[in-house]
Amino acid sequence: MACQIARKISEAGATPFLDEADVDVGSEFEDDIRDFLDKADELIALFTPWALGRPYVWVEIGAAWIRRIPIVIVLHGLTINDFQTHPNAPVFLKKRDMIKLNDIEQYFSQLNTRVLSGRKDD
Q1: What is the spatial distance between Cα 10 and Cα 8, in angstroms, rounded to a whole number?
Q2: N or C: which end of the chain has fewer CB within 10 A?
Q3: 21, 118 in Cβ contact below 8 A?
Q4: pLDDT at residue number 28
Q5: pLDDT at position 25, please?
Q6: Tens of pLDDT along the chain (122 residues)?
Q7: What is the dihedral angle through the alpha carbons of 11, 13, 14, 17, rounded to the nearest 10 degrees?
Q8: What is the pLDDT at residue 20?
Q9: To 10 degrees, what angle do helices 104-120 and 2-11 make?
Q10: Contact present, 83 and 100 (Cβ < 8 Å)
Q11: Residue 14: CB partners within 8 Å, gap ≥ 6?
């Protein structure tokens, strides 16, 4: 799923970062993630029941929050209530507009519009 999302982000004209595709085996992946987040314009986080327990997901979200970039939460196998009531979910995400994976085309359409409007300014 994450690879398909990354492909669609790329097709929209943005540059995705996917740890399994963009971090070389044996590299300091924390540095790679931090370097990419330093340049990112937004973060899209795919939340599945097993992602809720992954510490690096929360670290990436915290870094995006500190940078004040948009954080897009995509849910798969979870309801909004599941996410909002999970003990790991930070308060600043609980009020955020979230989308289900089945509705992600709306995000890609909006992303494409943002990318195109950003290019007009160049």
Answers
A1: 5
A2: C
A3: no
A4: 67
A5: 59
A6: 888 998 999 898 898 877 655 555 555 667 777 888 898 999 999 999 999 888 888 888 999 999 999 999 999 999 999 999 998 888 888 878 899 999 999 999 999 998 888 764 44
A7: 30
A8: 59
A9: 30
A10: no
A11: 41, 111, 115
Which residues is 74 bridged to in the sheet?
46, 99
Cα 96 from chain centre: 13
31/82 Cα distance (integer angstroms): 31
User: What pLDDT score was predicted for residue 30?
Assistant: 73
Here the tokens at position 9 are 């982000």
| Residue 99: φ, ψ to 5° | -125, 155
Check if the beta carbon of residue 73 is closer than 8 Å to that of residue 96: yes
Specify the length of the chain in residues.
122
SS3 content of the chain, % helix, strand, coil (to 5): 60, 10, 30
Determine the pLDDT at residue 122.
Answer: 42
- CA neighbours closer than 13 Å in the CB half-sphere of residue 47: 26
- Using alpha carbons only, give the angle 66, 108, 116 rounded to the nearest 5 degrees: 85
- Token digits of residue 28: 């300091």
